[in-house]
Design goal:
This is Amino acid transporter transmembrane domain-containing protein. This protein is an all-alpha fold. It has 18 helices and no strands. About 75% of the residues lie in helices and about 0% in strands. α3 packs across α10, α5 crosses α13 and α8 crosses α9. The longest helix has about 35 residues.
């Protein structure tokens, strides 16, 4: 019995007593930042091309509705069983007990780390693309830009919690809209420059090839919605937390409809079955939009990176800063935070910079981000 109660420590009591300060708008910024990323929805036109109009559109709409509803279900568990469950780990513990806590904790840590490995490579790749646009013969490599991005994330990691990221994530959300608007506009522009009679919307290849592409496309759609870290975000929201979180999640999904759906439909309309797996690769003119889209992508995923590393930071803080007397010395706390955030960022950066071939694995690593929450929702 003592083992099953161990994870439910004074952390929940302290957090409940202090209460959240964020509004539903702040919650919507956090949720949109973690879900509506360029890396998630830029491949969706290719997924639609692999499924065709009917199955593709119905899968996209169905995926949006199912994940929106499941997000509201998880949100509704705030205050369930008499406690405000401030993380997925604590929520799983209240339902499944000791092993539920540690199972979800394991999946969340693996998923968050996998996402951040992929995010940092994607950010470095986008920064390198912008650099090469202006300095075609420049000597800086992908590793340099991975390190630059890691240094920036170390700076953001000194912000104490998710609520302190609210304006960072507000900027990221607007950059998401900016990326989508730019890409949609240029996609339509490119589409109008193409002879429309040459565009083919039929599915090509053998039966086995079509089947493989269809399942791959369904996987891309299913996992493009990612993991919004809902309990962690809800812990930052003021009362009534449920009502505010309902509004925040719904507002974030409105952004998803404006970005995911529109880019998906426009990309497939413009290029048909010839659309590239990453929509930016299909765009040829004007060249300056390529730079703008990559810069928007870097800004957006910088906030996403922060959301995904917060469960790891929180895990260390629960244990290292568990002594109340230690909390009284802010310098000591800041030094400890700088130490473990530096170790985390250094490890992720080292993995990315030492093994640049992981760039190829980004589409495979990113979907792992929603694994633990998907399993939890199914259970």
């Amino acid at each position: 019995m003592l083992l099953s109660e161990e994870p439910e420590t004074e952390e929940i009591k302290s957090s409940t007593a202090n209460g959240g300060k964020g509004t539903w708008k702040h919650a919507s910024f956090h949720v949109a930042t973690t879900i509506a990323t360029p890396a998630a929805y830029a491949p969706l036109p290719f997924a639609l091309a692999s499924l065709g109009w009917v199955l593709g559109v119905s899968s996209l709409v169905g995926g949006t509705l199912v994940t929106w509803y499941s997000s509201l279900l998880i949100t509704s568990l705030w205050g369930w069983n008499g406690n405000n469950h401030i993380t997925y780990r604590h929520l799983a513990h209240s339902i499944f007990g000791f092993w539920g806590y540690w199972s979800i904790a394991f999946f969340q840590q693996v998923a968050s780390l996998g996402n951040n490995v992929a995010i940092q490579i994607a950010a470095g790749t986008s920064l390198k693309a912008v650099y090469k646009y202006y300095y075609r013969d420049g000597s800086l490599t992908l590793q340099h830009f991975i390190i630059f991005f890691g240094a920036f994330e170390l700076f953001l990691s000194q912000l104490p919690n998710i609520h302190s990221l609210r304006w960072v994530n507000a900027l990221c959300t607007f950059r998401t809209i900016g990326f989508a608007a730019t890409t949609i506009g240029v996609t339509i522009y490119n589409g109008n420059k193409i002879d429309r009679s040459s565009i083919d919307y039929s599915l090509h290849g053998s039966s086995s090839s079509k089947t493989f592409k269809a399942f791959n496309a369904l996987g891309s759609i299913a996992f493009s919605f990612g993991d919004a870290m809902l309990p962690e975000i809800q812990n930052t929201v003021r009362e009534p937390a449920k009502k505010n979180m309902y509004k925040g999640v719904s507002a974030a999904y409105s952004v998803i409809v404006l970005t995911y759906w529109q880019l998906d439909f426009c990309g497939y309309w413009a290029f048909g079955s010839e659309v590239q797996p990453y929509i930016l690769a299909s765009l040829t003119i004007p060249k300056w939009t390529f730079v703008m889209a990559n810069l928007f992508a870097v800004i957006q995923i910088s906030g996403c990176y922060q959301i995904y590393c917060r469960p790891t930071y929180a895990y260390f803080e629960e244990r290292i800063l568990s002594n109340k007397s230690a909390r009284q010395f802010s310098f000591r706390n800041h030094f400890i935070r700088l130490t473990f955030t530096s170790v985390y960022i250094a490890l992720v950066t080292l993995v990315d910079a030492a093994m640049p071939f992981l760039e190829i694995l980004c589409p495979s690593v990113v979907p792992s981000g929603s694994l633990h929450s998907t399993l939890f929702s199914l259970l």
